[in-house]
Amino acid sequence: MKRILLCLVITALISTMVTAPSMALGGSLGAGLHYLRNLGDIDSNESLDLSKDSFGLIGSYQFGAAMMTLEAQGEYIFNYAGTDNGMFIPSGWALLGSMIYAGAGMGIGHLDGEWQSDPFYALRAGVNLPLMAFKLDLYGTYNFWNNDDFKDATGEDLDSITFAAVLRF
Prior knowledge:
It is built from two helices and ten strands. It has helices at 2-24, 148-154; strands at residues 27-38, 53-65, 68-78, 87-97, 100-107, 110-111, 114-115, 120-131, 134-145, 160-168. The longest helix has 23 residues, at 2-24. The radius of gyration is 19 Å and the shape is globular. The two termini are 30 Å apart. Mean pLDDT is 77; it is low at 1-24.
């Protein structure tokens, strides 16, 4: 019993030491889900069997003061566009606003052991809903994504609309 209590106390102390400086500086951690829908007609090409939809997991850190927030985000998309490959996407965002916000960002994908040839640029709009000690960040993005290899194969770019839900603490 003493070991369990000691483990709980140590866990509480570590989590306090990690989150207290972050909160004092206006930072927040988040984890959530991301749904992506490609806009191009990528499944009209008979030589490729690609899906328009993808699903991913997001982890992020936001730091902000007043009405400006900077966010570093990492995402892992399972079975990206039906390719049977997962894709990791680091991205950065600059957001204006508080409860209702908008902003822009950029990132790049790492798929099948290689970085993509071009980064994506995106516009984002969302709302932060307070839930006691947490915030629920609901947002949508429009991604301007041009990948030369994909465009050569299909004649399409990878522009997409995405929707995400992130729980922040």
